[in-house]
Amino acid sequence: MIRKIVEIDQEKCNGCGICVPACAEGAIRIENGKAVLAADNLCDGLGACLGECPLDAIRIIERDADEFDEAAVEAHLGQTSRESHHAAHQPAPVHGGCPGSRAMVLDRPATESVRDVPRQESRLRQWPVQLHLVPTSAPYFRNADLLIAADCVPFAYADFHREFLDGRAVVVGCPKLDDNRFYTEKLTELIRVNDLKSITVVRMEVPCCGGIVMAARQALAASSKDIPLREVTVGISGELKGA
């Protein structure tokens, strides 16, 4: 039948995953680093996900597609729920649903004693740190090396203070929970009014975390400044990916 259905532009999509939780029917999933329709009959064609895509990679078209099936949606959501329950005991994510919000238990024994471990001093030299709260003209941004960090990174990467925070001004945020357009605008202004020496973006490996990298790159381009930008990815288990 000819009906309205979601179409995802694979050229525009960067796999950020922001659209996945926006679809109540679970019709969108991340596959091979891109958002795709899990099945035509899971999409109602109403387009609740459209406004969530920061790259405008999603639109509603009319084409020949299987009829929307509420029973199939219910079965699909039930299967996704069972997969999420199973993944809670697995260290690696599985396909389907949003990897950024899938519960899992990391198989890591608790440290019995830290008496022999030297105490580490905080390398934080400013306050606040949340991107929503920092003033773009704060003195700690002047002639600074800027660190843009996804807010899960310091919990996942044990040497965050020593390897990334030391000597840098920092802003943190979560592109999955916040407005990525706001991030882009705020970062554009921050870069524009300060003579930054470098920008380092540290993100988690989950697809939705790509939004913070995208915001940084778009902000740098909008500022018309030539500043070196480095991207680092941290795995859920705490390792540097590609390192």
TrEMBL record:
InterPro entries membership: 4Fe4S_Fe-S-bd, Corrinoid_activation_enz
Task: Cite the Pfam families for this sequence.
Answer: Fer4_6
Please name the source species: Geobacter sulfurreducens (strain ATCC 51573 / DSM 12127 / PCA)
Domain 4Fe-4S ferredoxin-type per the UniProt entry, residue ranges: 4-33, 34-63
The protein in question is named Iron-sulfur cluster-binding oxidoreductase
